[in-house]
Amino acid sequence: MTATDAAARTFESQDPRTGEVVGTHPVHDAAAVQAAVDRATDAAAWWAGLGFDGRLPKLAAWRSLLAKRIDDLAGVIVTETGKPLDDARLELILAVDHLDWAARNAKRVLGKRTVRPGLLGANQAATVSYPPVGVVGVIGPWNYPVFTPMGSIAYALAAGNTVVFKPSELTPGVGRALADTLAEVLPDAPLLQVVTGFGGTGAALCRARGVGKIAFTGSTATGKRVMAACAENLVPVLIECGGKDAMIVDTDADLVAAADAAVWGGMSNAGQTCVGVERIYVVDEVADAFTTEVAKRAGALRAGDSFGPMTLPAQTAIVERHVRDAIAAGGTALVGGPDSVRDRFVDPVVVADVPEDSVAVTEETFGPLLVVNRVPDVDEAVRRANGTAYGLGASVFAKARGEEIADRLRCGMVAVNGVISFAGIPALPFGGVGDSGFGRIHGDDGLREFARPRAVARQRFALPVPLTSFRRPASAMKGLVRMTRLRLGR
Ligand code: NDP
User: Fold this and answer.
1) Which of 80, 139, 176 has most ligand 1 atoms within 8 Å of its beta carbon, as the pocket-test mutant?
2) pLDDT for 99-158, tens place per residue?
3) Which parts of the sequence are annotated with region: Disordered (predicted)?
4) The domain 10-241+442-450 belongs to what CATH superfamily?
5) Catalytic residue among 91, 240, 293, 449
6) Region of residue 414 (phi > 0: left; psi between -120 and 50: alpha; otherwise: beta)
7) How many whole angstroms from 258 Cα to the centroid of ligand 1?
8) What pTM was estimated for this model as a whole?
9) What's the pLDDT at 4?
10) What is the largest CA-CA distance in the chain?
11) Which CATH architecture describes the domain 245-426?
């Protein structure tokens, strides 16, 4: 990205591998964002009116086109993020799978249902429906520029909303290409519009009249700004922020599988994964064997070959600061070190026995750095894993106690004997706690996130003695109190 002047009318996106300019995009101002939201509001009435059965074939047609275009879109992702083509393909495959699931399950999750009216409401028929919120504003990051926003876009559309999407300033071309595929299937309906620009464009989306909800994915600091802007008009928010995900390795773990998962989880996408592995707590008994295996695998990787560059130039300095601090604080570099930071490309770094107060342990690194710390037992591993303000994902490698350990972790998602596996299962909700945010994308919860529950109580017949009327006889209340004590006062 160049032309950082916020007043600029256009800006350029670059290939982070070479610095080559690959696209020019408008900087949408508040008026342009409002116009997009107004168009989305008009389209929202039509889209909601189609109902689940009317929307399903249209979303299926989009899914099918996306599946056919995987290679084309993957090419755009590669160009703006620098990640390897197969990683971009995997991101798209997951996104298409989520779109399919959201479209097929929306009616089951959000369709009108009856609920029991209870004893006091015995004369009523009670139903819950889940109408859409209207227009959803989606603000996305650059690291998984299709998969991450699609966790909101697909679920919001399936729930009957229209979407105005603000992609990261680093990946505007990806956002545009994604929206173009839906426009190709439904040319007359602006179901998914893209507004491009810098933070100001995102802020304008938060403040636009008619936005029913903002789904934000990005850093915790920006998430707080988004929430503050949305608070002005009481616009609800879904906040998906960063993490400092831990992996716990127990004594009975398959150490080869655990090391393989740790290296993929820590190094793939150059470590620029919100649910990537950043800290590993391995029980002492198996620490040497595990660490040797991790070092062997990580040492065989090279940036620019195994994974891409740092997409955000400023991130390189953060990674270098964490590497230096980990070593200065007393950690032992097993793979790489400060010299692994080569401008935009950062080779794998593995540092063992890093004090827990080092920034390499406390802050999100978002780069190919793995901290491997040995602990006396699983209890200590759990205590340290939970000792962070973040709480996004985690992974556990253990044979006997995998799920038991998972249940003790303070976070939104856990992979047992795997890594990041939860993100590929559309039925599982995705999101965090604490500084990692709140609200959920994916799964039933992800569909409900983009709907407003509406309760209806329909009287089927009048009660012989009215309770909510000024004509209520005092004797009726006495009887009701007696009955309540009998029923609930035990
Ligand atoms: P940022 O927080 O920098 O930006 C996120 C988005 O918000 C961008 O589109 C950005 O636009 C926009 N934005 C910036 N300022 C404002 C503002 N004042 N009001 C509204 N929108 C604004 O995050 P990154 O793009 O750097 O993404 C990396 C972060 O995302 C990491 O912390 C990572 O962990 C997290 N992440 C979380 C995921 C999750 O699901 N929990 C998934 C993926 C990433 P612009 O780019 O133009 O500044």
Assistant:
1) 139
2) 999 999 999 999 999 999 999 999 999 999 999 999 999 999 999 999 999 999 999 999
3) 1-22
4) Aldehyde Dehydrogenase; Chain A, domain 1 (3.40.605.10)
5) 240
6) beta
7) 30
8) 0.95
9) 46
10) 85
11) 3-Layer(aba) Sandwich (3.40)
